[in-house]
């Protein structure tokens, strides 16, 4: 089905017109042609398929990903918008608990992040590890999107803790994302919260970042 989704649109439309059963076939990934079309950003093809099979809009593959999640993952804003306009669930999660917003954040698609938040995506959504979008951004070092989320009108929970008790600041410190760590602090993140191993974010810092944080917090050695 992947190779089929890459075919010329006119040719595909003719094939589907002759044999609509093509739209009912699932591959080894439990995906319909619709899933692959969404992943490839084939908006016209997505629109055509849904005009015939609207019930496939929120169908999931073997990772519990909808066409919307796949379009978001690949950064196809117009396809995302079309799927949402048809009623796709913007807060649906795949088997790891990842939502469209979390994928847009971790992949660096600021335009999709902006759109999803504007239409009401849950800014504090967490995955199966209880990682929020802030955790993912702190880990990947996507400073621009982190700044955008922290300045959003609905403020995210900056001190949310995941299953290990780590806040986004813990993650930024542990992964040596210095700029993200300092930005989190500037926006009110606490450096005093212990995780399940009784370690604060400062305990996870390399010496250079630890000095910067202590200077910011005016902590003397």
Automatic annotation (TrEMBL):
Q: Where are the ANK repeats?
A: 63-95, 96-128, 164-196
Record keywords, A-Z: ANK repeat, Proteasome, Repeat
Tell me which domain of life the UniProt entry assigns to the organism this sequence originates from: Eukaryota
One Pfam match, given by its short name, reads: Ank_2
A cellular-component GO term for this protein: proteasome complex
Which N-terminal residues, if any, form the signal peptide?
Answer: none
- Tell me the InterPro entries matching this sequence: Ankyrin_rpt, Ankyrin_rpt-contain_sf
Name of the protein in its database record: Putative 26s proteasome non-atpase regulatory subunit 10
């Amino acid at each position: 089905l992947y190779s089929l989704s890459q075919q010329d649109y006119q040719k595909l439309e003719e094939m589907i017109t002759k044999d609509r059963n093509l739209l009912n076939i699932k591959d080894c990934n439990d995906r319909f042609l619709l899933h692959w079309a969404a992943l490839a950003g084939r908006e016209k093809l997505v629109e055509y398929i849904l005009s015939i099979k609207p019930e496939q809009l929120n169908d999931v593959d073997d990772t519990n990903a909808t066409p919307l999640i796949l379009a978001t993952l690949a950064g196809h804003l117009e396809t995302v918008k079309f799927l949402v306009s048809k009623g796709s669930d913007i807060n649906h999660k795949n088997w790891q608990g990842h939502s469209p917003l979390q994928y847009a954040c971790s992949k660096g698609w600021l335009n999709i992040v902006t759109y999803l938040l504007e239409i009401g995506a849950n800014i504090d959504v967490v995955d199966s590890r209880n990682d929020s979008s802030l955790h993912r951004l702190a880990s990947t070092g996507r400073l621009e999107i982190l700044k955008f989320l922290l300045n959003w009108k609905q403020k995210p929970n900056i001190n949310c803790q995941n299953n290990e008790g780590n806040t986004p600041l813990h993650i930024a410190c542990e992964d040596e994302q210095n700029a993200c760590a300092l930005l989190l602090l500037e926006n009110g993140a606490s450096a005093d919260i212990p995780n399940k191993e009784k370690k604060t974010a400062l305990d996870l810092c390399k010496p250079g970042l630890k000095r910067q944080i202590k200077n910011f917090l005016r902590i003397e050695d």
